[in-house]
Amino acid sequence: MDICTASQQVIQTVSATKPGSDVGYIHSVDSCGTVDGPGVRFIVFTSGCPLRCVYCHNPDALCKTNGLQRSVDDLLDEIGTYAEFIKRANGGITVSGGEPLSQHRFVEALFRGAKKRYGLHTALDTSGHGNLGAVKSLLDVTDLVLLDIKSWNPNTYQQVTGQKVDSCLQFARLLQERKQPTWIRYVLVPGVTDAPDNLRGLAEFLRGMNCVERIELLSFHKMGEYKWEELGIDYTLKDVLPPTREQILSAAKILHESGRKVVSGLS
Ligand code: SF4
Description:
- The protein has nine helices and nine strands.
- A hairpin with a 7-residue loop joins strand 1 and strand 2.
- It is α/β, with parallel strands linked by helices.
- The chain has one domain (3-12, 23-264): TIM Barrel.
- The model is unreliable at 10-19 (pLDDT under 50).
- Helix content is 36%, strand content 21%.
- Bound molecules: iron/sulfur cluster.
- Iron/sulfur cluster is lined by residues 49, 51-53, 56, 58, 61-62, 97-99, 127.
């Protein structure tokens, strides 16, 4: 059974109004995020994602219609409660997922509103899968892109996500063309995404992307494993352990060859 079908069976959809540019499907929000962009951030997790990452910690967010429908105005009112504090903490709003590009018109309206009403910094956390022609106006109101590159090696990418790497790399090239401030995120999964050749390929690619301000090397963790169990879906990384300090340092050393700043839990 597909994970989306499984989650539809256990999550009740809350239906309100018809989604469009003003209404989006939302998995959850976090009013005090500290890891998805600079400073303290209001995080909006959209639901719906075309990828099926084997380590996804939000498998219940993969099906768009499982989300709660919320309007831009409603979310902006909630964000307003925290806006002054967030600004003082040099933060902003981050839209993550799921895959926010699947609801790019909604995210664009939210970012425009957050800027206009509160002057907030905006960050988009994405795996780069979407209609590239359609997302440029969203990028116009995005201050920072957090681009998750799941693997450089195309076979590993397909194995990890169930999708081809091409869209993600095309999106990365678009960011470079636009000189869009970008942080790259890479999840280090021992035995899956930590092959030196894979990391070297990524470092070489990123050497040509001077819009990249930093590379965040994220350690694989199993905090979402229980959700897979709840959905009755096989979790294939059951026997994989988080990377050791040595594995993280070794991967970080290779990524440093890109000439970009590399940030890991250890540095
Ligand atoms: S891109 Fe993110 S939300 Fe989508 S499957 Fe992968 S980890 Fe999950």
